Input
Amino acid sequence: MVSDLIYGAALLAWIVFLSYYITRRLYERWVSRGMAPTRAVYYNRKIIHILAGGLVAMLLPLFSSWVVPVAMALLLAVFLYAPRRAGRLMYWFQTSDNAYEIHFTLSWALIVFVSWALLDMLNAGIAAVLFMAFGDAATGIVRNALFGKRTKSWWGNLAMAVVSIPLGYAYVGPLGALAGAVASVVEHFERPPIDDNVTVPIASFLIMVSPKLVAPLLAVL
Output
């Protein structure tokens, strides 16, 4: 447990440094060179997806239990909500029109908790989170580069599939690859206030754990 606290503290410090300092400097540099602020914000959100949510998900096997990672994610949700509550957005990656970065953090915590604490299927949880972190980042970066704004495009979903299908296979096998493909399609559709940070991990996770969920029902029948 002591090692978990050390890992958790180190990763939490990294995420705060990334979110509060590195991405802020990137925003200032990009905007000073003529990039539209909305584009800079969107790129920063995807950088945080990759280097915070995705990185920590890949390092989950270092922890002995789910307790510290989930607690860390919930603490980060508070860290992200506080400036919204105070009316002082971290403008270099937060926007006033949505709180999707909080959805990301809460989805991360939920998937990790259910996959590890309830189902003992951590690899499925990691894969689902990586679809949201790496896969969604790929689609966002491609769309931002092509269109210069947050929008939906099948080109972005194709980029997501290229990333997510191999990730799913690496962690879960063929069913994981299928989940990665489905996640890449699901990402294209959203109905605010529910966004792809909710639908992508949940839909893909349900696919990957379906054999374990369905087996008891089949046994009864």
Observations:
- The helical segments are 2-32, 37-58, 67-86, 100-118, 122-147, 154-172, 174-186, 196-220.
- DSSP finds eight helices and no strands in the chain.
